[in-house]
Write the C-alpha cells for this entry.
Amino acid sequence: MIRKFVTNSVSETRALGEKFGSAIKNLDSGIVVLMFGDLGTGKTVFVKGVGESLGVSGVRSPSFTLVNEYECENRKFLIHADLYRLENFSQISSLGLEDYENDFLFIEWSERLQSLSKRFGDNVVKITFESLSENQRVIEIICENSRLCEKLS
C-alpha cells in the first residue's frame, strides 16, 4: 500500500513524522524504515517527529555518529542510522543494524544497503522524500502492512 503526502513546511514534515510515530507506537514487533531522498529533503525532520510521538526529545542527525539510539516510553528503542558516509558493504554490515529489527529502526540513505535490506523481513516500510521547492516536500510511504498505512490516512 502506498500513501503520498505533500508537506509545505518543516513543521508539517515533523507533524507527519509524529503521525507515523503514533501509528507504530503500539506495534508488538519492531519496524524497519528505509528512507530515500537527497540531502535536505526532510528525513531527519521526519524522524524528529517520530521521536516526539514515542516520548523521545533531542533527536539529532546521525551523519557523523552513524547510529543514534534513543529509549522510548514503551521500552523499545528508536534507532536512527545514516549510511551517507559509508562506502561499502563491510562498513554497513559492521553497524549491526539487523540487531535492531525488534525496535524502531530508521535508516537514512538506505539505497546503500543493497541486498542487506532483504534480511529485515516483512516489517519494512520504505519512505521516499523529494523536494518540490525550498519548503515543499513529497513524502511517499510504501508499506506491506496495510493496517499501518491505513492509520496514516
Remarks:
- The chain is about 25% helix and 30% strand.
- Residues 10-24 form the longest helix (15 residues).
- The CA atoms of residues 86 and 139 lie 24 Å apart.
- The helical segments are 10-24, 43-53, 89-93, 146-151.
